[in-house]
């Protein structure tokens, strides 16, 4: 099919944090109001200090 | 066989104490298990695990790994009294697996029941969190598979298969399916690479943690096909295929498809019904590459040289499965298989067009639609901690805090199993497997059951000097239909043993 690109496999987890971002995901066909409603609801319960919350979520490896 | 077979899901939950990243997860996981057990009237010492038949180092390829060569985390059959480990009346096992609380569902016979008892497990964890919250800061649990910092923990599927099926055929046919299954079953993850060093979004929580094609390990050098050969059943007849690469799901449709499509592909492998070879080149690297492309536009290479989109390869599997079902059953196909084929087609049709159309059914799409909303509204880059916070909190087991639960409660995600049905399954076992007998013994004779496992119930009979071990090696015996009257009619454990022995004698 035209316009397709071949995946270049083999990227390991050694890329720098400023690596170019992957191709953007397809645009959502969700109506703006529906997404706004969802975000408003999530805003109300999302951890207020996101950075600390993410830093604090540390797990031991499992199976 | 169709989608119906003996199966189950085991899930290790992420665990943390708000504000205390260094809290001891082994102690906390023990608290989760003992707190829930106590709330159900179970003393951990009362119904503990019977390890007699566990053999985690047995390999499906036919050789045993030497214990000296095994990593300590592979030695799961060593009974450590500090590790809480109980059997629930629904037939499930609730225990501490290394540093995570794990719920292993009872054996069920179909994908929908697998979803029911998997959701019951999350409600078990939610109840433990609720009770532990009375002692601030409490404990939070997450139905996910990575912390995004290099650690992963599993959601494993188990499928009972015929021992006659050559394992080499399972490897060759199942591997390409597993490389692309994440497109309809992945739970989505913010961050690329095991430590999320590259900003971005990918389809699956687990894929980056897989390093080999076939192997026995589950905690390191994780393989696409796991060879653990521990059937927990009559070993000459059955093998238990232990699948370790899947994600924990919140979307019922993805969860149903994960179990249903895999069971059907296994049926085709058992019947040697594949009419074409779909082997994928470089399976491990391709597994990563597929996960890293949420556009679903890139192609992967098959061994025969063809280039194909992952969703097209999944469609090929669907077509082969549809032909197989039509050929074997025609109009007599069972309702469970029809339901799985319906959703498989519906989800693929959505993913083949604009993948975002699958947001009601597929976890990674539902999560991505929320994350893209934040990126648009607040101009966030993929490295923003708020997006990673959404990713983690997505899987919080609490109804009011877990974002997946908020979406489901407001009708934005298709719910196949209502929460009320899963709540009943917290205490009641499936009726059509041996899980019913295991659960019934615990419910009716809690004082007599000393230990239990997948294939045994060990009881103490008053006045007897030795414990009695009741083997339950046939997963489809011990059903309510087979032994319900015997259990219901037995006034005590001695009577039950006598009537089971008499029934066995009649069967001989």
Automatic annotation (TrEMBL), chain A:
Listed GO MF terms: proteasome binding; protein tag activity
Covalent cross-link Isoglutamyl lysine isopeptide (Gln-Lys) (interchain with K-? in acceptor proteins) as placed by the record, residue numbers: 63
One biological process term in Gene Ontology: modification-dependent protein catabolic process
Residues bearing the modification Deamidated glutamine: 63
Keyword ATP-binding applies: no
Region (Disordered), start-end ranges: 1-34
Keyword Protein biosynthesis found: no
Function summary: Protein modifier that is covalently attached to lysine residues of substrate proteins, thereby targeting them for proteasomal degradation. The tagging system is termed pupylation.
Description of how the protein assembles with itself and partners: Strongly interacts with the proteasome-associated ATPase ARC through a hydrophobic interface; the interacting region of Pup lies in its C-terminal half. There is one Pup binding site per ARC hexamer ring.
Note on domains (UniProt): The N-terminal unstructured half of Pup provides a signal required to initiate unfolding and degradation by the proteasome but is not needed for pupylation, while the C-terminal helical half of Pup interacts with ARC to target proteins to the proteasome.
Protein name per Swiss-Prot or TrEMBL: Prokaryotic ubiquitin-like protein Pup
Natural source organism: Knoellia aerolata DSM 18566
Gene that encodes the chain: pup
TrEMBL record, chain B:
Signal sequence residues: none
InterPro entries listed in its UniProt record: Pup_deamidase, Pup_ligase/deamidase
One Pfam entry name: Pup_ligase
Annotated GO MF terms: ATP binding; hydrolase activity, acting on carbon-nitrogen (but not peptide) bonds, in linear amides; peptidase activity
Residues of the active site: 97 (proton acceptor)
A single BP term in Gene Ontology: modification-dependent protein catabolic process
Family: Belongs to the Pup ligase/Pup deamidase family. Pup deamidase subfamily.
Entry protein name: Pup deamidase/depupylase
Provenance organism: Knoellia aerolata DSM 18566
């Amino acid at each position: 099919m035209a316009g397709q690109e071949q995946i270049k496999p083999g990227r390991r987890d050694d890329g720098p944090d400023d690596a170019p971002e992957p191709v953007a995901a397809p645009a959502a066909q969700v109506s703006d109001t529906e997404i706004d409603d969802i975000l408003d609801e999530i805003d109300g319960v999302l951890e207020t200090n996101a950075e600390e919350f993410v830093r604090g979520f540390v797990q031991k490896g499992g199976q | 066989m169709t989608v119906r077979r003996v199966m189950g899901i085991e899930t290790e939950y992420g665990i943390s104490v708000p504000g205390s990243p260094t809290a001891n997860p082994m102690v906390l996981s023990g608290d989760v298990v003992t707190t829930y057990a106590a709330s159900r009237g179970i003393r951990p010492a009362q119904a503990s695990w019977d390890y007699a038949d566990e053999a985690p180092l047995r390999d499906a390829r036919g050789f045993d790994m030497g214990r000296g060569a095994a990593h300590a985390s592979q030695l799961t059959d060593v009974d450590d009294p500090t590790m809480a480990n109980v059997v629930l009346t629904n037939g499930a096992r609730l225990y501490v697996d290394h540093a995570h609380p794990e719920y292993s569902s009872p054996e069920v016979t179909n994908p929908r029941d697998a979803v029911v008892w998997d959701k019951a497990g999350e409600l078990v964890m939610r109840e433990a969190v609720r009770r532990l919250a009375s002692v601030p800061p409490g404990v939070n649990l997450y139905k996910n598979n990575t912390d995004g910092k290099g650690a992963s923990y599993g959601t494993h599927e188990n499928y009972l298969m015929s021992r006659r099926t050559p394992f080499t055929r399972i490897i060759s046919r199942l591997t390409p399916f597993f490389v692309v299954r994440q497109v309809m079953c992945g739970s989505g993850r913010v961050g690329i690479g095991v430590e999320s060093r590259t900003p971005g979004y990918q389809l699956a929580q687990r894929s980056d943690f897989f390093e080999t094609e076939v192997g026995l390990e589950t905690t390191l050098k994780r393989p696409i096909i796991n060879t653990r050969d521990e059937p927990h059943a009559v070993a000459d007849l059955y093998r238990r295929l232990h699948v370790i690469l899947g994600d924990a799901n919140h979307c019922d449709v993805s969860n149903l498809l994960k179990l249903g499509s895999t069971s059907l592909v296994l049926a085709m492998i058992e019947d040697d019904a594949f009419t074409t070879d779909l082997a994928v080149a470089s399976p491990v690297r391709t597994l990563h590459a597929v996960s890293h492309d949420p556009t679903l536009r890139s192609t992967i290479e098959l061994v025969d040289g063809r280039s194909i989109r992952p969703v097209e390869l999944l469609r090929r599997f669907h077509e082969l499965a549809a032909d197989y079902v039509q050929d074997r059953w025609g109009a007599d196909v069972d309702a469970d298989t029809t339901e799985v084929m319906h959703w498989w087609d519906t989800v693929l049709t959505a993913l083949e067009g604009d993948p975002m159309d699958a947001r009601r059914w597929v976890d990674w799409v539902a999560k991505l639609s929320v994350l893209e909303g934040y990126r648009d509204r607040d101009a966030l880059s993929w490295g923003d901690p708020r997006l990673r916070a959404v990713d983690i909190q997505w899987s919080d087991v609490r109804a009011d805090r877990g974002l997946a639960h908020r979406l489901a409660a407001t009708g934005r995600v298709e719910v196949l199993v209502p929460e009320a049905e899963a709540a009943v399954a917290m205490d009641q076992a499936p009726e059509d497997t041996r899980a019913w007998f295991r659960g019934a013994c615990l419910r009716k004779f809690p004082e007599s059951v000393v230990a239990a496992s997948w294939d045994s119930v060990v009881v103490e009979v008053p006045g007897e000097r030795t414990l009695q071990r009741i083997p339950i090696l046939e997963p489809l015996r011990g059903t309510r239909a087979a032994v319900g009257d015997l259990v219901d009619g037995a006034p005590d454990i001695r009577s039950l043993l006598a009537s089971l022995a008499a029934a066995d004698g009649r069967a001989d």
